[in-house]
Amino acid sequence: MWNEPYLETCCRSALNRLKIAGSLGRPPGLKDGPCLGRLAGMGFARVRPDGRYEATAEGLARHASEILKARGGAAQPRASGSKPLSAA
Fold it and tell me: Does a structural domain hold residue 86?
């Protein structure tokens, strides 16, 4: 049974940007600020003393289970004109 809190698409995107930002964190006042606030309320992010948001261990685990899982079945994009690896 599904027992994790639902993440809207915008909040999943904000969580992905937190993961990408890594130790730099995300500054407050950006368009995804409301989502970062929701993520912090759910324990997936935290506000550092410098005011920036960063992913928590729970947030990184949720990123791995929900966002990376969704990418697992997707084909990797190739540069225009490049051949698939199997045809090399």
Answer: no
Q: What pLDDT digit, counting tens, does each position of 51-69 carry?
A: 999 999 999 999 999 888 7
Range of the domain at 44: 9-72
Q: Is residue 1 part of a domain?
A: no
User: Cα separations (Å) of 80 from 61, 71, 83, 88?
Assistant: 34, 21, 9, 15
**CA–CA separation, 54 and 76 (whole Å):** 27
For the whole model, what pTM was predicted? 0.73
Q: How far apart are CA 16 and CA 33, in angstroms?
A: 14
- Tell me how many helices (H) and strands (E) the chain has: 4, 2
Q: How many domains does the chain have?
A: 1
